[in-house]
Amino acid sequence: YGNVSTVLNGDFAAVKGIQPYTELKGDLLEQLKNDHPVAGIDWLAHYDSMKVIEKRQVRGKDAYLVELKEQGLPDATIAIDSESGVILTRRGSLLVQDIGAIPIQITYDDYRDIDGLWIPFKMKLFNPMSGNTVIEYESIETNQTFAPDTFVLTE
Hints:
The protein is mainly beta. The protein is 6% helix and 52% strand. The strands form two sheets. The chain has a seven-stranded antiparallel β-sheet with strand order 4-5-6-7-8-9-10, with helices on one face. Strands 1-2-3 form a three-stranded antiparallel β-sheet. A hairpin with a 3-residue loop joins β9 (117-127) and β10 (131-136). The model has no long low-confidence stretch (mean pLDDT 87).
């Protein structure tokens, strides 16, 4: 299927892989920032509004459904486990350059405590363009040192 590299460094983002090198700007840049794992620590710093819309069963667990909105981006609905506080699912749309918004659903599993943060080690993504994608982490190491050019993506 191929390899895709994505870099987000402050207000600069770029992607290359299946498609040629592309800098992400405007709504595509904001979407990448909002979808970054750190955004889940403080949604109000990344979204214009956050609202609990209902409580119901999601994947066999009591969950709060939370709607996240950001001007210029598709809305997202997050299901949060009412006991543990971890994210169970995310539904919304993904902006794709030159195509528009496509629906996406993400399921999060296998949470592990990494230095006090509960991180999902398995994510299942589905969208009609690429079908099912599974992302699994074997390990996560913290307190690493990187060369200054590690997060620079060039053509």
